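ok posting inputs for the potassium ion job
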Amino acid sequence: MNLNRKAFVRALGVLMMVMGATMLLPLAVSILYGEGKVALAFAGTIIPVSAFGFLLYYVVVPGHTSLTARDGYLTVSICWILASFISAIPFVLSGAVSNIFDAFFECSSSLTTTGATSIADVESLPHGILFWRAFTNWLGGMGILIFAAAVLPSLGIGANILAATEAPGPTMDKITPKISDTAKNLYKIYTIFTVSEIILLMAAGMDLFDASTHTFGSVGTGGFSNYNNSIAHFNSMPIEMIITAYMLLSGVNLNLYFYSFKRRGGIRNLLADEEFKWYIIIIATVSGLISLNLWLTHTYENWGQSFRFSIFQTVSILTTTGSVSANYDLWPTFSKMLIFTLMFIGGCSASTAGGLKVIRFLVVFKLIKRSIQVRLHPNAIISIKINDKNLSIDTVSEITSLMFLHILVVTGATLLISINGYDMVTNLSAVLTCIGNIGPGFNLVGPALNFSIFSNTDKLLLSFVMLAGRLELYAFIVLFLPRFWQQNK
Amino acid sequence: MNLNRKAFVRALGVLMMVMGATMLLPLAVSILYGEGKVALAFAGTIIPVSAFGFLLYYVVVPGHTSLTARDGYLTVSICWILASFISAIPFVLSGAVSNIFDAFFECSSSLTTTGATSIADVESLPHGILFWRAFTNWLGGMGILIFAAAVLPSLGIGANILAATEAPGPTMDKITPKISDTAKNLYKIYTIFTVSEIILLMAAGMDLFDASTHTFGSVGTGGFSNYNNSIAHFNSMPIEMIITAYMLLSGVNLNLYFYSFKRRGGIRNLLADEEFKWYIIIIATVSGLISLNLWLTHTYENWGQSFRFSIFQTVSILTTTGSVSANYDLWPTFSKMLIFTLMFIGGCSASTAGGLKVIRFLVVFKLIKRSIQVRLHPNAIISIKINDKNLSIDTVSEITSLMFLHILVVTGATLLISINGYDMVTNLSAVLTCIGNIGPGFNLVGPALNFSIFSNTDKLLLSFVMLAGRLELYAFIVLFLPRFWQQNK
Ligand SMILES: [K+]
Ligand SMILES: [K+]
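and the output
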């Protein structure tokens, strides 16, 4: 179980070179907007980071390439932490953010596609930084697709339940023989979504800058906006409709699009997928109930307005985008409880969405259903099926264990952060919105507020919670176990 | 699957006769305190209820006695509902409570050992009613012991994880060959606890009436008090210490006492039981952390006071007694979050405590631990053991399914009750404290307040939540499934 140090170091080298390359785009934006100090900050980050990455990659001779699960977890976790740290450098160098904890929080929030901000007034930030902030949201979405499509299966781990051979739904290997091809297909869809949304948002009246940043936020389900009031800033039905559509599209298993449209049947294949079907049912039911509640309580003047804000917020929270078109913290309790419930669920597997994912809840519902049937008919043997395929006991056990671990991490993190003395709803919802990579919570971290209230240690804790949630807990949590490090020779 | 109607009707008959007989005690108390109207109310309940029960039992000819699981669930659930309804009659007849929903809420709260009250000023109630309220708390505790020790195993159902043959810990059949003997042993302990606590509380200064009612509340882990301020009314260290000790003793698996002290080893056998060990560890850790938090935040004047209130409240909430010696809703958030977390756990299996029970959390922790080990060593095969015995996959699956069903019922009930518009913490904690049979919650249902704020429909919903929680969900939940009734011919 000796750690494969060479492969680890080379992975960090690649990451640093990639980070350096991606920063050329915000560098260009800063120059375009004449923000000299910001441009210098990016240049001053790109050069040393790329050079150091180049050294690590080319000086270290490649060793044997097979990684153990342990090496894989360590590499993935350290890469995400390092990427957050590197992304934070221009924030500090440019003087946009003075506190390194704020910068690190902002960047782990961005790369994990959480989209929670600790900057009280984002509108005061320079364009280069705002662009970088949105672009890392988009990069993070792509990063999680790599993680789900390539990293986890190559480690032979079924943390992504779609990667295991006995897994439900369209597995990766069904579509293309190679994992790298699957990854390419995912990026293709991701790019198509990005380009088309930018065009549509510009058609709806946004300039190229706003259209780009808000597209990065919605297709990556990150939800960062360059306005303090998020999407509510525009107060535009067409913009809300476009963003709702793209959040909804991005919350779907991206493989499913290929799987469905490369075979006969097209959209019927899509609807035949159980996870997709329940994703749509949840959105329809919850947005319907919230609309009704908002309408009956006269929260908005008519049914149309109620539905407008309800559908946007339902899709935004379920897909874990966290964009805001209305302050849901002012809604009646019934609607707030529905939003709170959505925070646990999240989007579909193999999407950029966070949360526990619809498919896991589907499995749990089937478990509950089975347990009731078994009690009424003690001799019945009922298997758990998804898309007409039996799930193995191991797969079911992985899913239930992950959900319990999720509850444990939420409980532990909420207890720790509660030392700050803020009310229970603020602290619990802050942890929930971070572990689910959503963005806004309730009360002091409600949709109209931000995470600037927290201390540096709280921000660091929440950054870790975001990273843990993004990496489906295990990859990150194991780093905190003494057992993990004891085995290192 | 035809319902065995005769056995069902005869069970109701027995219940009514028992209820009539137990009401002789509060009848005597009313006469003793010269409360004529209350005495009449009890007499006016006892006569028709007993007579009707007698008729049902002796007129219906016994059929075959083997009950199906379905018959069993129906019988148990209807018995608890009927018992709550019968208990409520004297409340209304005596004029103590005018609203039938209040009376039903009070009695299901009492019989399920929840101890939540919807009566704003309990001190204004007559002695006969106060006694009956406390006595039903005690009866409910005994009722749940019958349910756990006799009813569930006779149905061949492992809802009580101690009843199944592959179950962890000291199983029933190890101690005594017959279930009825086990039940007798449980009542013996229950009676010893009751008599000794009454004597100790009188020694600490209570009169016989207060000592009896508060003993009924603590050994049954119901927590009803005849004072609005619960135990805080006495402001007495010795009384708090006695009640803490008895709550703690009553939260333990009562079989374990027999099992431990009938064999060589005595107290060492007790400590060797994993559930007992973790029950003590939880109490020690949580009360220690709360004391520290209360002390460091200067909530109380010194360490001694901090510990005094912390240990009482920790034991009271973990054992789901819900007695109050200090308003924990005014404590700092860290302590409140710990109390909130305890609300999920509950006491040990085969005790009078509610909640999900320590042993189920123990199994879940072991599941999480295993899932981490499997990820680090993908080929490892690790079984889940309790007290050195392997748990079968079915037992583990029953436990995980019950916990998910618990979460589902809490979510559903909280959403339904949230239509009332009270804040999220009030509604969520009301549901949690009812399903866990605890008593007090947070905010508007905090320890210094009561459930009188709720509407009749809310009270009915919460009464059902208490019953569902008390019967470990399945027995009660199945009644609400159309499937359950479709099979009835
Ligand atoms: K987000
Ligand atoms: K209670």
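notes: The longest helix of chain A spans residues 127-154. Confidence is low (pLDDT under 50) at residues 156-177 of chain A.
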